[in-house]
Specification:
355 residues, mainly alpha, two-stranded parallel sheet, 14 helices
Length: 355
């Protein structure tokens, strides 16, 4: 794709700023009611799941408990926690929805996630060596990442990350790969460890000790149900997030390309480095509306329920300025991600080995 001229990039920025201003001016009761309904639904799912597990000896009740808890955790992490911690509902002045104090049902401490995600990822989206989400320090996810024999394990690393996704997110800030390379020391990350251990201990106690013990002789069934719900949440979050960032067609950038970046160029980078997933309203809800990753990267602090409303307008802006609008079904985008993970595990016939 040929990059638009600077004047056209400025016009794109102005058009997208206008979209943002219009949405901000329209925020109100409907947005507040929406997030409160989602919170109520999440709590209902959690209570329902816990109640069903008291009859966990009956297979349908056990399966229902796992499903309800998985939906509860997905809603808590995706549509509530992720979006609340972006500040999408700070304008409501509700202490329970405050971006600076909200804590979610996963092992990564909220304060650490706010730094690594809200600041590092959303400021330096898809900039190599700046955005730690490009491969998460584990995967080769772009041809611009220099190949090394370590990447032969790309598919195995991706599988492990999917299964243990919440732990991968927790360990993200440690930047273990940079410690191994000597670019960071354990002393640099020592202050992060204690909060990680405390949060992990609380989560483990809740899911694998307290709630199982409460169900008495059904404790082993409750423990496996909680583990199953966490696994489902991890696999789902992995799929949605990877489909929004890494399918074919998404671009990465160098630090030089992002120097002295105007507002319009920042918007352009977000659009070129993101991808959407098509689906039903329920699908969008369960994805935290990160199925509209393009819109989320453009406007991370706008309430997520607004992304489907502005998606057609953002797409029209892209088409009018001859920019790609990367979107597709979950199976299409996920298949694209998997093919890339396998393909980039190997060096190219020429180029990678010659570097």
């Amino acid at each position: 794709m040929t990059e638009p001229a600077l004047r056209e990039i400025d016009r794109i920025g102005e058009e997208l700023d206008a979209v943002r201003r219009r949405v901000v001016a329209d925020l109100g009761v409907a947005d507040a009611e929406y997030i409160r309904k989602v919170v109520a639904a999440q709590r209902l799912c959690e209570v329902s799941g816990r109640v069903l597990l008291f009859a966990g000896w009956f297979p349908p009740a056990w399966l229902g408990g796992v499903a309800a808890l998985a939906v509860s955790k997905i809603l808590d992490n995706m549509e509530i926690g992720h979006n609340v911690m972006h500040g999408q509902y700070d304008w409501m002045k509700d202490p329970a929805l405050n971006s600076r104090t909200f804590e979610w049902d996963m092992v990564c401490p909220g304060d650490q996630w706010r730094r690594s995600h809200n600041f590092m990822h959303h400021t330096y989206t898809n900039i190599l060596d700046k955005d730690r989400d490009v491969g998460y320090g584990i995967l080769r996810i772009s041809e611009d990442q220099r190949w090394h024999p370590y990447y032969l394990g790309n598919p195995l690393y991706a599988a492990a990350q999917a299964v243990f996704f919440e732990y991968g997110i927790m360990l993200h800030d440690l930047e273990v790969d940079r410690i191994v390379q000597g670019r960071r020391t354990w002393a640099d990350v020592r202050p992060l460890v204690a909060p990680m251990l405390r949060k992990t201990a609380r989560q483990a106690a809740k899911d694998y000790v307290v709630f199982p013990v409460l169900t008495g002789p059904l404790a082993p069934l409750t423990l496996t149900a909680n583990a199953g719900a966490n696994l489902i949440r991890n696999l789902w979050a992995f799929a949605v997030i990877f489909c929004g960032h890494f399918p074919d067609g998404t671009e990465v950038f160098t630090e030089r390309e992002s120097e002295d970046e105007s507002r319009g160029k920042w918007y352009l980078r977000q659009m070129l480095g993101s991808a959407n997933i098509t689906g039903s309203p329920l699908f969008h809800l369960l994805s935290g509306n990160l199925s509209h990753q393009i819109e989320h990267h453009l406007f991370p602090d706008l309430p997520s329920r607004r992304y489907p409303q502005i998606a057609a307008e953002v797409r029209e802006i892209c088409e009018r300025h001859h920019l790609p609008y990367n979107t597709g079904s979950l199976s299409h985008q996920l298949g694209s991600v998997f093919r890339k993970i396998f393909r980039l595990a190997l060096p190219r016939a020429r180029g990678d080995l010659a570097r």
